Amino acid sequence: MTEQNTQLTTWRRPRLAVDFWSIGALLIAALVLMPIIAVIWLAFFPTENIWPHLIATTLPRYLGNSGILMVSVGVLSACVGTGAAWLVAMYRFPGVRWLQWALLLPLAIPAYVGAYALVDFLDYSGPVQAALRATFGWTSSRDYWFPEIRSRTSAVIVLSASLFPYVYLLARAAFREQSGCSYEVAHALGAGPFARFWRVGLPLARPAIAAGAAIVMMETINDFGVVEYFAVQTLTTGIFSVWLEMGNAGGAAQIAVVILALILGLVALEKTSRRNSRFYSLSRQQRPVEPAALAGWQGWLATALCVFPFLVGFVLPAAVILSYAVQSGAAWVDPGLIRALMHTLVVGGAAAVLTVLLALFMVYGVRLAGRGLPRTLLPLTTIGYAAPGAVLGVGILIPMAAADNAFADLVQGWTGFDPGLLMTGSSFAIVFAYVVRFFAIAQGATDAAMGRVTPSLPMAARSLGRSAGGTLRAVYMPLMRGSVGTALLLVFVDCVKELPATLLLRPFNYDTLATRVHEKASLENLGDASPAAILVIGVGLLAVILLARTNR
User: Which of 9, 45, 129, 346 has its CA 20 to 30 A from that of 309?
Assistant: First the structure.
């Protein structure tokens, strides 16, 4: 009887461990999905239903502007990113070796910083129009015509210049992975350079280009700083207007659900467009494409075509902001900037560490559990990255504020002491929003890293008596150290740049670098905004350098 009990206990131990990791994974998935569920609930059961009013008044304008921006930015970014990727991957021309990495640098510039720089450069008081007036003797704006800078067209240009590297990065990788034999056959059949691009390169790279364009359109609908600065009324600005100006949380949630529907439709369309696209290599030893040399004017034309988006997306905004930063010596020691920097480091660092730890726990728990429900929920937790920050702000702040007030009332009723708002009155809500928003980045990095660990190593550790947690610490973590560090850096950089969620969830008088840049630049005070913008750009450059090193 004793031997039977011992065998039963030994057999049950792994099951209890699996249950622990499985339950933990389910709880993490519930936390990540909670804001999305809250938004849907608030939209369908609002306190005051203004849906008919929105449909009759502002919603068509919000939806129209958002749709035009998404399509325009997506198409322009796809054209610029794909064209630059094709030139860099297929040809040798002057400067190609540094341009292939320079074209990634616009990712370091937040789109709202690019908007402030463009307006300062091209506005009536900027250097371009001032030079025109001085050259031709014009005295006022009535003497000449100049395009309206604060417009939807400018928003499209700024967003495209900031986001095209997403398409460029994926398209360049797709072109480089293609077989050189395909192009040699096409050339032998009489296809010229454009025909080889249109009939061979583009169809083979279409899945990667579609994925990049989908990311660009998601980031476009998430944007708040650019469209708010250019006075373009989109669904995201509608959330801020309906909630903060009209005081209607249910209406804001209803607009947020429209954004979610657009995002899910966009993801479904992108997956459907790639569903029937299958391309296979028929050779075991695939020969890569050999870049062709472009000489003379053709080479310099290719250089100019690649340099132009780099100038617009990185050099122009960086130069404008840097010139203000150099002139604003006192702004660097402003106590407000120091506080914003400390707040950014605290919330960004805490969110990065917490996000990676939760992702690591969940991915490992799902692998251990091997059950249907955790595996089903794992892909769903990536929806937070697709959901705009304003949507998450609605789904987090309203339920969290209600819970905060209920807890404060309960404590005050029992003890007579008012603890205040513990979650929404602190940076807790911001950290939670960052975790939900960027969980997909950490999850993808840890899942890929765990997949590269040969199964025999953890099996050997378990056979030697290591627990599940001990195996994670002793086997997986040493082998995953680089991927975990990369995930920490990428999540931290995205937290530093995030604007909409931070604006909605920050406590009173709680600035981060992103919100400080937004507030100062909105008041046309680029001098005070420039130091914070330079710090944000510097953090972004770290991520771009890491991205360039991992994509050599």
Answer: 129
